[in-house]
Design a protein that fits this description.
Layout: H1 20-33, H2 38-47, E1 53-57, H3 63-70, E2 75-79, H4 85-92, E3 98-100, E4 115-121, H5 130-138, E5 141-152, H6 158-169, H7 174-189, H8 193-202, E6 209-213, E7 217-223
Parallel strand pairs: 1-2, 1-4, 2-3, 4-5
Antiparallel strand pairs: 5-7, 6-7
Length: about 230
């Protein structure tokens, strides 16, 4: 299978999430893809202190549960998709507050400037203005706080990508074809490190760091001044 399926110009991701069945299928897909984010999970675990932690993202895939399985965390989750709130509350239980935040709007009362650690996964693909979105995330940081954002990138290692696509294409079941189609849609909507760097520089965010994370992903990091 050719890896020429990835265009030079990104196409913002628009996953089908019209009804409960669509959202459940996507939730299962993202949960399965999280197995490839062990290094980012290691980074988050090491970054956790005794202070509160905020996850901000679409709300699918249960990444918060992976962190909680490793260590106790005073964790709150904000979902950018309001349809993800109720299922995630059911999954995480009463111990983890789950709410909705509309990107571009103010953070819920009491959350701005509160968190030593804020993180996000799977949030950049549908975004057309990443600098605005990332600044919104950073608004929750306490003085001296750290923001970590991880997502696919559109310029992955070509050999790893070729292997991944061949492996996924070999599963001709309905579920297998859904996973392949959704993965390709996600890749086409992903940013490259250079694209994100250019957007952040244009927004006068030169102190933000954008680095590759393994062969397929990228991580954005920002530290708020003490």
């Amino acid at each position: 299978m050719s890896t020429g399926l990835l265009p030079d110009v990104r196409t913002p991701t628009r996953h089908r999430l019209a009804d409960e069945a669509d959202r459940l299928a996507y939730d299962r897909y993202v949960a399965a893809r999280n197995q490839y984010k062990e290094e980012f999970l290691d980074l988050l675990e090491a970054a956790c202190s005794d202070g509160p932690v905020l996850e901000v993202g679409p709300g699918y895939g249960g990444f918060a549960g992976l962190l909680l399985a490793r260590r106790p965390v005073d964790l709150r989750v904000l979902c950018t998709d309001p349809n993800a709130v109720a299922p995630l509350r059911e999954r995480l239980g009463e111990a983890v507050p789950v709410g909705h935040w509309r990107p571009g709007g103010p953070l819920p009362d009491g959350l701005a400037g509160r968190y030593p650690l804020v993180y996000s996964v799977h949030a950049l693909g549908e975004c057309t203005e990443p600098a605005e979105l990332l600044r919104g995330f950073a608004g929750a940081l306490a003085p001296g706080g750290r923001l970590l954002v991880n997502d696919l990138r559109r310029d992955p290692d070509p050999f790893i990508l070729e292997y991944t696509l061949r492996e996924m294409a070999a599963d001709d079941s309905a579920d297998g074809q859904y996973r392949l189609r959704t993965y390709l849609d996600s890749l086409r909507g992903a940013w490259t490190c250079a694209e994100l760097r250019a957007r952040l520089d244009a927004a006068e965010m030169a102190d933000w760091v954008v680095d590759p994370d393994g062969p397929m992903a990228l991580t954005v990091e920002h530290h708020r001044a003490p």
